[in-house]
Design goal:
Strand content: 25-35%
Helix content: 10-25%
Number of helices: 3
Strand order of the largest sheet: 6-9-12-15-18-21-23-24
Largest sheet: 8 strands, mixed
Radius of gyration: 17 Å
Amino acid sequence: MKEIILFPFGGNAREAVPVIEAINKKEDTWDLLGFIDDNPNLINKKCLGHKVIGGREILSEYPSAKVLAVPGRPENYFNRKKIIDSLSISPERFTTLIHPAANISSSTKIGRNSLIMAGVTATVNISIGNHCVILPNTVISHDTVIDDYNMIGSNVSISGGVHIENLCYIGTGSKIIQEVTIGQGSLTGIGTIVLESIEPNSVVVGNPGRIIRKVK
């Protein structure tokens, strides 16, 4: 079994624990050492029996352990790259977790340090980049490209030929029409219906989606 460490002790990392459990039910693959977090007040906090075992110093104590780093909330998604890069570990240490109940076609390519949860469907000729999180029951249709450092909520519907640029946050229940581009650094609110391309660094809400402000 391969050792793995989760970072930080946030919602995405805690939701990765059942993914690891599901993978191990099919085949013993991962030995979860625990979580690491920059907040010392979280030491020994537990999720499903797994503790916060320390801060970043743990990475050097377990040099062979793989890492899944999945920070990101709507209020700080645009800092995901900075947070992940600040771990200063080699790209080869990052791993990707795909829930066995995800339906991922053989023509889909997924980068490193990405988390794909149960019920996600990726159909034909799809590219999912590095450092992405896709929450349960999202459907990604043919020829879609999802760049790096993206967060995609649950029950999102992405039609064919969509391009989601780096560092976006796609809110739960959003629907994106075919062949549009979501510009870098943009956020769509919960349940947004995207019918046209979105400029970079935009916050978009509603049905149909409209820009309400720019991300600074």
